[in-house]
Amino acid sequence: MLRLRYIAKGTERAANAIIPSTGEIVLLQLDGHLTPDEFEQALDLATSGCMDLYKIQRKALEDRYGGSA
Amino acid sequence: MSDDSVSNLMKGHMESLAAEGKRADGRGINDFREVKIETGLINTAEGSAMVHLGNTKVLCGVKLLIGTPYPDSPKSGTMTTSTELAPLADQSFDPGPPRERSIELARVVDRGIRESRMIDFGALCIEEGEKVWMVYIDLHILDNGGNLFDCCTLASAAALSNAKIPNVQHGIADEDVDLPVTCWPISCTFAKIGDSVILDPTYDEECVMSARLTVAHDENGNLRAAQKGMNGAFTDTEVRESVKTARSADNVLREALKGATG
């Protein structure tokens, strides 16, 4: 299961996708100008955003189809 | 550039070496191969450079032509990057129109240069909305010994820094001036082999890698572009470590670039 998250700050853009069960990053694309700290923050934000979306989507599916697959 | 025909024996060998922090050519996992840069080789181009990175050899030519700007950016010059993967460089390169590998390579190199705003596009405006300089970066792969991404980015940077705006030839001004370069993006490409991550993969290492990560930093250590390629995955820690490693590992390329361009 993949989650995609797109974040932006000024002219900086980044997209990433992770596998929620393992936390592995399967997509990462970034343009712009980020200091090392900003990059760490961007990655944190993207990862937590992916996990939030994953939970929402999982809940939506469970509510609709029941069960806890 | 994963090749299905790689033997399991080779794959196993590479993976076990990488797991021990070793490599087939004796390098450390975060070392670049020997780099050599020559500039100004082609007289008919506005800028040119040849880069050797180990066995990989790339020739880059920069041409500047006058054209009309895009309607949404009437004051900016334009840039086009193309890569030529000729069959002479690698038995797996096919003749004919560009394919996925060639397009991805050109796009990653283009992104590193464009998004880092290495070229001052505003300074390439001749007449707003009418005439701007169009920068063409042509990359010719002469020998594919692995890691075309970093070799091509380096060749582009060297050729751009060597380029002159041909004002005299086009009757724009009385003298040719250097192409305005604002920063120096250098890319570092990492390959995931088994559970290990190595810098600057060779051809053989690329054949067995599952994923690729290219990150470009400027001379101040700020991240300018990143792109992950192929089907495999990197862990969060691996991405963070790679970005950190790239900031110091790119010094050797930066010094070579500085040496070649003065």
Global outline of chain A: elongated
Number of helices of chain B: 6
Please describe the biggest sheet of chain A, giving its number of strands, its sense, and whether it closes into a barrel: 3 strands, antiparallel
Tally of extended strands of chain A?
3
Derived from helix and strand composition plus strand pairing, the structural class of chain A reads alpha+beta
N-to-C CA distance of chain B: 34 Å
Spell out the helices and strands of chain A N to C.
EEEH
Low-confidence stretches of chain A: none
Q: Please outline the major beta sheet of chain B.
A: 6 strands, mixed
The tally of beta strands of chain B, per DSSP, is: 12
Beta fraction of the residues of chain B? 25-35%
The stretches of 5 or more residues of chain B where confidence is low (pLDDT under 50) are none
Strand percentage of chain A, roughly?
A: 35-45%
Mean pLDDT of chain B: 91
SS summary, helix count of chain A: 1
The strands making up the biggest β-sheet of chain A line up spatially as: 1-2-3
Choose one word for the global shape of chain B: elongated
Radius of gyration of chain B: 19 Å
Q: Would you tell me the structural class of the helices and strands of chain B?
A: alpha+beta
Q: State the oligomer.
A: heterodimer
State the share of residues found in helices of chain B, binned by percent: 25-40%
Task: Please outline what is shown here.
Chain A has 69 residues and is of the alpha+beta class. Chain A is built from one helix and three strands; from the N terminus they run E-E-E-H.
Textual characterization of the structure:
The complex is a heterodimer of chains A (69) and B (262). Helix content of chain A is 43%, strand content 38%. Chain A has 69 residues and is of the alpha+beta class. In chain A, strands 1-2-3 form a 3-stranded antiparallel beta sheet, covered by helices on one side. In chain A, a hairpin with a 4-residue loop joins strand 2 (12-19) and strand 3. Chain A is elongated. In chain A, 23% of the residues are buried. Chain B is of the alpha+beta class and 262 residues long. Chain B is 28% helix and 30% strand. Chain B is built from 6 helices and 12 strands. Chain B has helices at residues 8-19, 100-115, 148-161, 203-208, 236-249, 251-261; strands spanning 35-39, 47-53, 56-67, 78-85, 125-127, 131-143, 164-165, 177-178, 186-193, 196-199, 211-217, 223-229. In chain B, strands 1, 2, 3, 4, 5 and 6 form a 6-stranded mixed beta sheet that branches. Chain B has a 4-stranded antiparallel beta sheet with strand order 10-9-11-12, sandwiched between helices. In chain B, strands 7-8 form a two-stranded antiparallel ribbon. The radius of gyration of chain B is 19 Å and the shape is elongated. Chain B starts with 7 loop residues before the first helix and ends with a helix. The interface between A and B is medium-sized, with 23 and 25 residues. Strand 3 of chain A pairs antiparallel with strand 12 of chain B, so a sheet runs across the interface.
